[in-house]
Amino acid sequence: MTVLDTRTLNRATLARQLLLDRADMPVLDAVGHLCGLQAQEPQEPFVGLWSRLRAFEPGTLSGLLVERRVVRTHLMRRTVHLVTADDVLAWRTRHDAMLRQRVLGVYRRELDGVDLDALAAAGRETMADGEPRTMAELTRAVADRWPGVPPRALGEMLIAGLVPMVQLPPRGLWRTKGGVRNLPLAAWLGRQPDLDPSSPNASSPDGSDPVGQALLRRYLAAFGPAATADLRAWSGLAGLPAAVAAARPELVSFRDERGRELLDLPDAPRPDPDTPAPVRFLPAFDNAILGYQDRGRIIDDAHRGLSVAGERVVLVDGRVAAKWTVEEGTVVATPLRRFSRTERADVAEEGRAVAAFLSDRTSERVRVNSF
To answer: How far is CA 237 from CA 47, 101, 113, 255, in A?
Structure first.
């Protein structure tokens, strides 16, 4: 079995993540191709798409949110993701059990003795009037039925685990601040998540898990080659063994340098490892890093904590090599290693472009700190 070294995996990831070359792809198609973007920080997906698409205009993504073609919702790993309406309808049911278990992992003691079916019914009854609510408003409406249970535990279980919800605009619009107001997914999109076992949304009677297979193929298209442990780390689902077994005849296999089996789509891009990789500024919580259990293909173990701490990072030669932030209108890059003169110039050039994007082209101020 062919062994793919770290640099080969790096270039494959960059190609799949649209980070090797900016893509001429509609914004909606890009959100779909990437299987969504992690979005608990509302403005970060705009940077993520700007780094991946040519001529990206933030208003286009804002428009897709207002038009209900893209939504903000809890999905993979119980984190807020920006996903297409079609994908959330197709994938939400497959994630239901995981979402509940993730909430219980935090609030199991507080929710001990709470009938979750009754709680879900109370939440749906409250939201049936079609009025958006904050978590606090929703929990106040149901709390008298569960005296003594912390409101936060009830709210998290309702919104992230039991009743499929979306976060409504203006939350998530470009340069717009807005608190989280929730509405059931079905009310916002006019359609319930698909529950038909014969559709690509749930396990089929023969156990082949068609929804899991669809998720696997989409994941590999955006993140492969990858191990089942990587798929599990990205989705929060338990490895999708039935889906992997059913899809295996259509996939190709490799090994990484640790000996792990990597699965991939046969015709997916796996560029030459010597393909030049441009500097890219990534937003906080970018899935190019978080989408793997083994993140060594893109970030050194010494810096792995940056990816879960909400630090924005800079890719140099395809790997995380700096942090970046904005200070008083200036994009500031702080290297994690020593840069060559050429690398420093390339980071500064891309930093000026980031500054122009973030300032609506009124500033190109950038500073690259010393290592």
So the answer is: 27, 11, 25, 22
